[in-house]
Design a protein that fits this description.
The radius of gyration is 31 Å and the shape is flat. It has helices at residues 3-22, 29-80, 84-93, 99-111, 154-157, 218-222, 224-249, 264-267, 280-292, 308-315, 327-334; strands at 117-119, 161-165, 170-177, 198-204, 209-216, 270-276, 302-306, 318-320, 325-326, 340-342, 357-363, 371-376, 379-384, 394-406, 412-418. It is built from eleven helices and 15 strands. It is an alpha+beta fold. A hairpin with a 4-residue loop joins strand 8 (318-320) and strand 9 (325-326). Helix content is 39%, strand content 21%. The strands form four sheets. Strands 1, 2, 5, 12, 13 and 14 form a six-stranded mixed sheet that branches. It has a domain at 119-170 and 205-419: 2-Layer Sandwich (hypothetical protein PF0899 fold), CATH 3.30.2320.
């Protein structure tokens, strides 16, 4: 039993005994001495109780931290040992899942309903020792609810927040009006009238489902040494490409979420028509608008999503013929090169004459991400046992539920007609 509980019980007993003695009109000397002793003990116990509550609160906080870290580490250890090969063989041959893979699947099934076998997103990340086109990256650590979906996601590079929701809907209230300041015009005058504190909700709803299909031949299923990496790599890349594309170019129709660029007018994002060649001056003007709108504290806070053709034009145009500096050199002196994300997937191809495309600029004002890309639960992996039955193959469908929203439109700007 906790020490504070023991003290509280004793205090209750003292109060009960004191109430009985206080009810007597003429207590004798023994009863008076007893009341004085219990009163002294009661005051002493109050000091002891406060000390016990403080000590126990510290112990609770310490235990909670240990439990939270232990739970997170245990989940990461389980996911690190998740074998997608077991999932494929279970769907193809009915082989029973075992080990860490079985534990992860059981845990995910307890959190939500799946028609097939749930596969955690972390299991699709590239693991240490696996060679990809850009080298051998380090594994990504998952932190509670919010995690990195993929290390090289364009959405993540643009400062977007990538989260995973177990179930249900989620909303992010954003403050639009609040405290005001004003001077009193005179000794007896009042200060300015207040304005109502107002917020706008940015909802995320599990109404958009992405399907990723994969066909495994009988030969590939028997090549157990390579099937694990190949399946994870293909699923990961297919999901990443489509989610990145939807985050920026999603139309909001035909089952797609509404992307940041396609839905700029709906979200209230500023769209500035450039209709000129890409240059440092174009980006400088946009950075200035962010600075005056309190969305950035300097050029280093700005991120830019551009097409490779825009980079080619900037790199191929001289800013100063005498020094040999290009527009790209001048631009990256103010905005770090690492803040630029080049993509041919998340931005539409240049069109028109001369060819022009869009550019997206973002900032993380106050540490808050400009946009949110959410996924629900895990990848629901379902087997189609009929389509490839004659050849002994296996056809898989992975279902992903995702949605996109923004936090503050002031943290984003779309430049159109950048030639």
């Amino acid at each position: 039993m906790l020490e504070s509980t023991k003290i509280q019980r004793r205090q209750s007993e003292i109060r009960q005994q004191l109430s009985e003695l206080a009810g007597k009109s003429e207590p004798d000397e023994t009863e008076v001495r007893s009341m004085e002793a219990m009163d002294s003990e009661y005051r002493s116990n109050e000091v002891r109780l406060r000390a016990a509550l403080i000590a126990e609160d510290d112990e609770r906080r310490s235990a909670a931290d240990v439990l939270e870290n232990r739970s997170g580490n245990e989940w990461q250890d389980l996911v690190a040992g998740f074998e997608l090969r077991q999932v494929a063989l279970n769907l193809d041959e009915g082989r029973v899942l075992d080990g860490k893979t079985a534990e992860v699947v059981t845990e995910l099934r307890n959190q939500g309903g799946y028609r097939g076998i749930p596969v955690p997103y972390e299991a699709l990340e590239t693991r240490a020792g696996e060679t990809v086109a850009s080298g051998v990256p380090d594994p990504v650590s998952t932190r509670g609810l919010i995690d990195r979906l993929f290390p090289d996601s364009v959405t993540g590079r643009m400062g977007g927040r990538l989260i995973n929701i177990a179930a249900g809907e989620a909303e992010w209230p954003v403050t639009t009006a609040g405290a005001t300041a004003g001077w009193a015009d005179g000794e007896t005058a009042n200060v300015g009238d207040p304005t109502a504190f107002q917020t706008v909700d940015r909802p995320l709803k599990p109404t958009h489902n992405l399907g990723v299909q994969m066909k495994l031949t009988r030969r590939s299923l028997k090549q157990t040494a390579g099937i694990e990496q190949a399946v994870r790599s293909d699923l990961r890349r297919a999901i990443q490409v489509e989610l990145d594309k939807a985050a920026f170019l999603g139309t909001g129709a035909n089952g797609q979420p509404l992307g940041v660029i396609a839905g700029a007018s709906t979200y209230g994002i500023t769209e500035t028509a450039v209709n000129a060649a890409a240059s440092w001056a174009v980006f400088r003007a946009a950075v200035t608008r962010f600075l005056t709108g309190n969305a950035a504290t300097g050029p280093g806070n700005v991120r830019a999503l551009i097409r490779p053709e825009i980079w080619d034009g900037l790199e191929g145009t001289l800013f100063d013929s005498g020094s040999g500096l290009t527009e790209w050199d001048k631009l990256t002196r103010a905005i770090p090169a690492g803040n630029f994300a080049l993509t041919n997937n998340a931005l539409a191809a240049p069109s028109g004459e001369p060819a022009a495309s869009n550019v997206l600029l973002t900032t993380n004002a106050g540490g808050e991400a400009p946009m949110i890309l959410a996924t629900w639960g895990a990848v629901d992996l379902i087997r189609d046992p009929f389509s490839d039955a004659q050849s002994g193959g296996l056809r898989l469908t992975g279902l992903v539920t995702a949605d996109v929203t923004i936090t503050r439109p002031e943290q984003l700007e779309v430049l159109t007609g950048v030639e």
